[in-house]
Task: structure prediction
Amino acid sequence: MRKDATEKSKSATSDTGGGSAGGRVRKRKSMIENYYNIDENFRMLGALAQDPNFRRDVHDWFNLVILVPIVGLNVINWDWKAIASLSVTSPKVAWHGDYFHEFWYLSLFYFAIDLLWVTLIPGTVRSPMTIIIHHSIVMLYVMIP
Result:
């Protein structure tokens, strides 16, 4: 059974090394514990149960829907006959980019909307700051010609 955060923090701070042999003192929660049940010896017991979160589910569906045309536009910008013939010596040879602008604008639109979404409603993801930093860096990076 998973302990709640207050029980974990109490047990982590109450054992100062004088307790049971082999017991470890952990100062803070590991990122792994956001996704998996962990026992006292830091063994993974399995994934956490899915919790109902309508806002997160809507965000997940948005991502699934918007990423389909982005991936599709990426796929049609490549010369798959050249790739299949194994004659491609570099990515420049296989990339024709006929739909590059559509791909670029849709990707930038996705990152901007998702960045706004996660910034305004941080409960839609488990680690909003990671997503905010990632999307900000990607948006700056794709501006480089």
Notes: The chain has six helices and two strands.
